[in-house]
Specification:
Blueprint (H helix, E strand, L loop, with lengths): L12 H10 L3 E3 H11 L4 H4 L9 H15 L3 E2 L5 E4 L1 H5 L4 H16 L1
Antiparallel strand pairs: 1-3, 2-3
Length: 112
């Protein structure tokens, strides 16, 4: 994946799943986030940019990607600080189009 300073959280869904699969299906939050950042070759100056609450914008977007993957049933959120794939998460191979569809479905349930 090429460097893209304007990545939105949906762009992180597939890399989060890939990193977790490569990591044996689980990892602590900071480890997974760091591996996603490394995988996408996101420069430190981009990672260090913060949002209005003072959190890294990139890391916040990766957290939002995880949130939607949890709501879609691909990540288990039972253990605080640990990101763990479900059986569905191990099996899924999302395309960009499917990511947008997943977002719309989860967003509709969550806000509807």
């Amino acid at each position: 994946m090429k460097k893209n300073k304007g990545m939105q959280f949906l762009d992180y869904m597939i890399p989060v799943l890939e990193v977790l699969k490569e990591n044996g299906g689980a990892g602590n939050a900071s480890e997974v986030i760091d591996k996603v950042i490394d995988r996408l070759n996101i420069p430190e100056d981009v990672v260090s940019k913060t949002n209005s609450s003072g959190q890294s914008t990139v890391k916040n977007r990766i957290q939002w990607a995880r949130f939607y993957l949890v709501k879609a049933g691909f990540i288990n959120s039972q253990t605080r600080g640990e990101w763990k794939l479900t059986q569905a998460g191990f099996a899924v191979k999302l395309t960009r189009e499917e990511v947008y569809k997943l977002f719309r479905e989860v967003h509709k349930k969550w806000n509807g």
